[in-house]
Amino acid sequence: MKGNKGERRKICVESIVYDDSKMEACLAMVGRRIHAERIRQRVSISRLAELSNLSISCISKAETEQCRISLKALIKIAAALNVPVWQFLDIDESYLLGGTEESQNLKDCTNGERFEQIMKPAGEKTTALILDMVDELMRAMNRDEGEEE
Questions:
Q1: Helix, strand or coil for residue 2?
Q2: How far apart, in whole angstroms, are the C-alpha atoms of residue 54 and residue 46?
Q3: Are 30 and 71 in contact (CB under 8 A)?
Q4: What are the tens digits of pLDDT across the range 97-131?
Q5: Backbone dihedral angles phi then psi of residue 72, each to the nearest 5 degrees
Q6: Residues forming beta bridges with residue 139, ordered by sequence position
Q7: Furthest CA-CA distance within the chain
Q8: Quick one: which of 15, 112, 114, 147 is 20 to 30 A from 49 by CA?
Q9: How many helices and strands in the chain, by DSSP H and E?
Q10: How far apart (Å, rounded) are the C-alpha atoms in residues 144 and 146?
């Protein structure tokens, strides 16, 4: 894949993207993380079902790894527990990039620098679109915070 200046981005075959066993291990932990967060917050399974508009059975099966949870259900559970979805996935850049030097560099910099490094291969239009989306999201969050007061 080429970036803006003809650079070639390295593909790390050890990353979760190319290693099905790493992907399966990551997905298997989702249910355990949901369960741990629910217990940490002292939320019963029936209360979580009510808050997330999911069945008790769906949540129970996900927590006990009897089935793979859908993205839609995961988003509902995260919203009900008021945590970001990525908390259940627990994937950071080093896991996605396979523990490369590039991923270590992303950990050791500010959020602004991380954004610049991540967006380096993106074109101007893509970067502008993402910045517009973030701007709109921040405005929506500010409106929501104003309504809660």
A1: strand
A2: 9
A3: no
A4: 444 455 455 556 677 777 777 777 777 777 788 88
A5: -60, -45
A6: none
A7: 54
A8: 147
A9: 9, 0
A10: 5
